[in-house]
Each structure stands twice: as structure tokens, then as C-alpha cells.
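For concreteness, we quote verbatim a single protein encoded this way:
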Amino acid sequence: MTELAEALPHVGSARAHGVARGYLLYLGAAALFALNGTVAKTLLLGGIEATVLSQLRATGAFLILFVFVALTRRSALRLRVAELPMLLVYGVLGIALTQFLYFAAIERLPIGITLLIEFTAPLWIAVWFRVGWKHPTKPIVWVSMLAAVVGLAIVAQVWDGLTLDPVGLAFALGAMLALVVYYLAADVQLRRPGARDPVSLTMWGMGAAALFWAIVQPPWTFPTGVLAGSMHLFGQGGPEVPTVVLAAWMIVLGTVVPFSLVVLSMQHLRASQASAVGMTEPIFATVVAWIVLGEALAPIQVVGAAVVLGAVLVAELNR
């Protein structure tokens, strides 16, 4: 008993350190995802189309992850016929469309507002769990949904009419729905018997997205010339950065690395803890876009954003 009593503080300390490590890993992922929004918007404003950027991101991420999985867990490269339909749903609707619609939205809307709309996806997942899968739902979730809608209305400043670009708004709502598909398809695959690991699932999802774009835009038609030259950061007066460096950043530091950090963090965090940390991404993204692109929110929009993030966080912690 004495030995057990002496060991318990060390176990608690190790667990606390593990949770702290998980928080730091997820915060790093959120910061990189947020920064990637500004990098992507710089590329979009520089003349690269959203479809081209989506194809570049999915294909580049798939190739890097494929090499990593081949070197570390070659058995995960095998595909079963039974998992192909859901992988296609996950990759095409969940990844390819989420990325494309997000890129199309931030061309027309501030990055922070786009992410706020997209981050209401967990609320709609709660609706699906209740309506589609008949899961019990706490009343606080419905209150949170109402609060999120009110918060978005404040961000959009609806009392002044539709101040947001309607096409951009439609793209952002589409990105939110595609993100719902992404989460649900991933959940189904990770919980089925003999489920594959999250890294190889992400790899094959990116592969399905890359295949989709290869069909829509065959590789031999890819406009490689768009990667030549350089682009300005911080507007025309800012420093010039080679376009290919920004593209490489988007693929490696904006996709592969943050996805890997999320996977590593989930070894130390529960889903509710991860969801809480994930709420920092729109905050990081708004700050970075304000500094780099000059995208500032009005004070009343900041209040609305806080209401949305708070509502989503409460719903996630009680789902």
C-alpha cells in the first residue's frame, strides 16, 4: 500500500504532463491551420484559382503522407473493397469540397468570418446525431445552436442588410456542410471493426481528393506557370516571397504538419478537450489576417464572434 501511495502522485503528474503536451500540440496545429488561411488567401489574391489551389494541396499532401506511411507502416497501404465507398465520400465530399469551398469563400469574405461559419459544423452534427441516428441530445445543445445563429447574425450585421458577399456566404455555408460530412465519414470509419489508423485514413482521404481533382483537371492541364514568380505579403509594399515557397508552406506546414500534430495530441486529450482547444483557430486566423492582410472586424463583430465560439464550445462539451 505504501508503494502504491508513493506511486500515485507520479502517475498523476505524468498524466498532467501528458495533457499539457496534448494541449501544446493541438495549439500548434491550430496556429498552423490559422496561418495557412492567410497563406492560401495570398495565393488566391495573386491569381491562383481555388480549384488549382485545392488540387495542389490535396495532391501534395497525399504524396508526402504516402511516402511516410510506406516507410513506417506499409501494411496500411492495402485497401479493402468494402472501405472504398466511404473513403470516396470522405475524400471527395469531406476533403476536396471542404478545401475548395473554403478557398472560394475566403476570396470573398474575411478569413475569420469564413472560419466562424465553418466552425458551426459541430452544431449541425449534433442535429444529425439526433435526427438521423436518434441519439439523445441535451437541451443546452439547442440553446447553443440558437445562440450561434444570433452570433452569426451579429457578425453579418444583418440590421444593415446583407453586408457580406452573398456568393462568399454561400461558399462558406457549403464548406460548413462539407465539413459535417468530413467529421461524420471519419467517425464512421474510425469506429468500424478493423478500422485503420488516423494517419493512413487521412492519407487515403487526400488520395481520393487528389483523384477527384485529377479527373476534373487532368495533371497535364495543370497551369505550372502560376507557381513562377513571387507574391507580396502585407500588400504591395510588403516583402516578396517566391510563389513556390508559399505553395510548399500550404502543403507541408499548412496541411501535413498540423494534421500530424492533431493526431499526436489526441493520444493525450479527450475529444471534449481537443474541441475546446480547436476554438482557438478562428481567433488565431483573425489576428493573423488582421496583421498580414488588414482584415479587421468591427467591435460588434468581435462580440458576435465570441458568442458563436462560446456557443459551439458549450455544445461540444455537452454533446
User: Anything to note?
Assistant: The chain has a mean pLDDT of 81.
